[in-house]
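Researcher: I'm preparing a figure for a lab meeting and need a structural model of a single chain. I don't have an experimental structure, so a prediction will have to do for now. The sequence is pasted below. Please return the structure as tokens so I can convert it later.
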Amino acid sequence: MDLNFNDIFNNMISAAKDNLSAGGEDIVKYGQSVFENEKSKIETLTTLLISGSLSQDDFNSRIDDVKMTVESQLLAEQAIAKSTAQKAINAAMDVLSSAILTALKPPI
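Model: Understood. Here is the structure written out token by token.
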């Protein structure tokens, strides 16, 4: 049996897209929520700095804490993204494997 690689690749891309788009929206929402969770803290620190109630050094220290918090949460997001990418790759490879197995089956 001949393999139509254009069809196989199109099916692989479709399988990968399904997984990527499913995870993509969740990843974007998660990233937004990370920043939303820190918004009031950043606003408060900025207001205190501008009003003179907080020194530049204290502001920098506290903003560094916020940055580390956001960074750790975004690294968790990166792990989620990696998982999504792996699922997309696996789906695409499943399509390829299935097409190869079908092509190798002896006719009945």
